[in-house]
Structure prediction request, 492 residues.
Amino acid sequence: MDDLGEDAAKDAFRDGGGILFPFRHGYAALGALLDAMPENEWRRDEAVLGGLVLYLVKQGQAARARSYLHAKTLTFKKTHLFDFLELLLALHMGEPVSERKMAAWRRLERSLPIAEPLLLGLYYNAMMAMSVRLGHLTEARVAGQQAISCFREDRHVYLEHFIHIHLADLDVMDGRLHHAERGLSAAERCLVQAGVSYGNEADVIGVIRLAIAYERGDLERVRREAAGLRSSLLGGDSWSELFFQLARIAVMSCYFLEGRQAAQRELDDFQADYARRHGGVATTVDALKARIWQLDWHPNEAERAFQLVQALPMQSAIGNVIMREFEAAMGSAAPVDPETSRGTIVANLQKAQRSRGHARQAAIEAAMKAAMDEWQIAPFLEWRDVFLGVSSKLASSPYARRNRKYARLVAQVLRQVDQSYVVPSRLRALGLNRRQYRVASALQSGATNKQVARQLGASEATVKYHLTSIYRLTGKRKRSDLIDFMYEIDIS
Prediction:
């Protein structure tokens, strides 16, 4: 195509499908045609502008694509194709979505030609993602199935693979991990059948596989692979919800393996990368920050971070889940709806948090039983404080003695929960162990010994015993000095 003249390039683009050209002939061929066209053809031809926007998005330049789409010097009459492009760009940019916009985009369906199943499939693909952002997950699944039907009618297995990834991501959020794995296998089969690759398809699938690994407690794998996948998402084609999924599992894994300060650095990196890729502030990443403060026994900082997030629109299903679980963990929300596998686990853990003694143990056991089939570990790490004071009883319960699989799950959960309390290096150097660190951290909220004991599921005498050791190891003599020292550790 290097020898094409300007008119021939325009004809080849039009005859090759216009705005659908890259999906029929590839992005390399599209790039060659765009190079051969007159310099400002995109200002005069809506389809050419669409091809340019799609090409830039595929190259990871969504912000630049937006500047072309919103240029004030466009001379063509805008049609339904322009609205379609705005929808696709909003998908890739992670722009705020409102119910009003969704209503307009639903009306757009009536303007799209029924004879173009490929165009309809792309539309349903985008609507699926937008429904996810607003938390309309049932509507999202319906749109996903409609997209699959359209792509199969057009025999476009390459685009079908994206839908299987979207649906697998929803399955992960629901806790249906086996179903998510089958969806990813379907996506991989589609890629093999398509026989083409335009960029980071394998890495996009890899993000969801890594999310499954996180849910099953393989935090070390998440730490090994997350940075490479994030780099791939920044440089290639991706949608914002995928970025937030990676942020969630990477930050949480970092926290449980290395502690809050390391997780804070990870949060800052994700926030900076989001601003570079999509522009603006990622409220989902800020919601993660509030959750980390809450997990680390800093209720005041957690509440401040939460209030900042509340003042901003949350355009992410993952962000909404984080916010709901944050409110539940802080005791300021109604019980989590147990309509999904993960929801059932979290609802029982929330019940355990509000209970004591045998009732707490029974709720944790119910959560464990709900987690067995999918082998879910992550929810227990995210609600780890419910185990304080009952761990030994779980391992020796009658059900654990009768059911070997359940006993293995309990053993893995308890081991990872215990290891997740990471003692900061300065305190570790002074000789503080995990139990002492828990007590010292709990004091920072201004809690009394009795309140700390209740929070940690220990006796007041045990708290006093640990405090004596903490004073000796840190060289502090007064409670206020110890609290000041702990805050100094936090910001150093």
User: Anything to note?
Assistant: The two ends are 59 Å apart (CA to CA). The domain at 197-333 is CATH 1.25.40 (Serine Threonine Protein Phosphatase 5, Tetratricopeptide repeat).
